[in-house]
Each structure stands twice: as structure tokens, then as C-alpha cells.
């Protein structure tokens, strides 16, 4: 880069300005990366807790379902009576320009879709447990999607920050040094030339 720039004061000022902007850009990217990392780590901690709750609830739900199958026979027909979930809503929030999903389920109390005369409490327990699993799964889906988006954003931010730190900024530093050294050398040459001229003038005056 340095060899392709003519060493003038104007170019020195422009390069210093570009260097300052590159350093500012790096600082902003580094700050963004740290904020995104902190956000992601908090979500990962929450995801671990939610996953533990899901595992525990799933265990209870499958145990209850197993008991319902034992006491009622296979309940596939009863399971088909439960409606498909359609109350999932997705909105977004922004974290340092990264769109993070917010997944919510419509606030409806679980409605029993089977008759009590042909079922028992084991099926009720399985139904309620799987209802809680559904709610927790929506929470976990939101967190995992957010972590994935944040991880991608962190990777891109890190790549850009590295490019500024390891390529762009050193090149601008090199150019500033090149122009500064060239201008200083020119000043020394001009100063030396001026001294020679002044000596010649002084010599002529003394020999007139």
C-alpha cells in the first residue's frame, strides 16, 4: 500500500484519518463481540436449565404415558383427539443489530379433548406433563435459535475485527510511517539545500 501512495502532507492527513477510523471500527467491533458473547453465554446457561427441566418433565410424561397404555391399552386413538398446536407466535428483538427470535405460545389453559368415562388419572397426568413439555420446548427453541444466530454474528464480527487488527491497521501504520519518513527526508534535503544556497550567497557578498 505504502509504495503506491505519493508522499505528500495531504496524503499523510488522509491516511491518518483512515487509520483513526479503522481503529475506531475495531474498538466498536470488539465491544460488539464482547456484548454478543456475554448475551450468548447467558442464554447457554438458561438453555442448560431448561433442558434439565424438559428431561425431567419428559421422564414423568413418558412414565405416565406408559402407565396409561398399560391400564387403558394403546391410546393412539385418544392421542389423535388432541389438536395440533397452532398458537405459536414469533417476533424478534435486536441485540447489537442481531435479530433474536422471541417465541411465545398463546396463553390458553390445556383443554381436555377426551372423555373421562373411558380414561383414568394416568392419562390426565401424561396429558398435563406433555403440555408442560410443549411450553418448555418453545422456550428452548427460542434459546437455541438465538444462540445459533449469536454464534454466527460473533464469528462474522471476529473475522472483521481480525481483518482490521491484523491487515488494515498495520497497512495504514506502514503507510503513515512511509509518508512521514519521506517527508522528513525531503525536509532534511530542503534544509541542506537551503544551507548551501545561503553559504553561496554569503560568499558572494563577502567577495564583492
Instruction: Indicate the low-confidence ranges by residue numbers.
Output: none
Structural class: mainly alpha
Helix content: over 70%
For the biggest sheet, the summary is: 2 strands, antiparallel
Strand order of the largest sheet: 1-2
Kindly provide the radius of gyration, computed on alpha-carbon positions and rounded to a whole number of angstroms. Answer: 36 Å
Number of domains: 1
Q: Mean pLDDT score, rounded?
A: 83
Gap from first CA to last CA: 53 Å
Instruction: Tell me the CATH topology.
Output: Helix Hairpins
Q: Number of DSSP strands?
A: 2
CATH architecture descriptor: Orthogonal Bundle
Coarse shape? rod-shaped
Oligomer: single chain
> SSE order, as H and E?
HHEEH
CATH class: Mainly Alpha
Describe the structure.
The longest helix has about 90 residues. Helix 1 runs antiparallel to helix 3. Helices cover about 75% and strands about 10% of the residues. It is built from three helices and two strands, in the order ααββα. It has one domain: Helix Hairpins (Orthogonal Bundle), CATH 1.10.287.3240.
Amino acid at each position: 500500500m505504502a509504495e503506491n501512495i505519493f508522499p505528500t502532507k495531504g496524503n499523510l492527513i488522509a491516511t491518518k484519518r483512515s487509520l483513526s477510523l479503522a481503529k475506531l471500527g475495531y474498538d466498536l467491533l470488539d465491544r460488539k463481540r464482547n456484548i454478543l458473547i456475554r448475551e450468548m453465554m447467558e442464554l447457554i446457561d438458561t438453555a442448560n436449565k431448561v433442558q434439565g427441566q424438559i428431561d425431567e418433565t419428559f421422564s414423568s410424561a413418558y412414565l405416565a404415558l406408559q402407565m396409561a397404555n398399560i391400564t387403558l391399552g394403546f391410546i393412539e386413538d385418544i392421542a389423535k383427539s388432541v389438536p395440533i398446536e397452532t398458537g405459536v407466535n414469533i417476533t424478534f428483538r435486536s441485540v447489537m443489530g442481531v435479530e433474536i427470535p422471541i417465541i411465545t405460545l398463546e396463553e390458553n389453559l390445556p383443554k381436555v379433548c377426551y372423555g373421562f368415562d373411558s380414561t383414568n388419572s394416568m392419562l390426565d397426568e401424561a396429558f398435563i406433563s406433555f403440555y408442560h413439555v410443549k411450553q418448555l420446548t418453545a422456550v428452548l427453541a427460542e434459546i437455541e435459535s438465538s444462540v445459533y444466530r449469536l454464534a454466527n454474528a460473533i464469528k462474522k464480527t471476529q473475522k472483521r475485527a481480525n481483518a482490521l487488527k491484523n491487515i488494515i491497521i498495520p497497512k495504514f501504520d506502514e503507510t503513515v510511517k512511509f509518508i512521514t519518513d519521506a517527508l522528513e527526508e525531503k525536509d532534511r534535503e530542503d534544509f541542506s539545500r537551503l544551507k548551501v544556497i545561503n553559504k553561496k550567497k554569503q560568499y558572494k557578498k563577502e567577495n564583492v
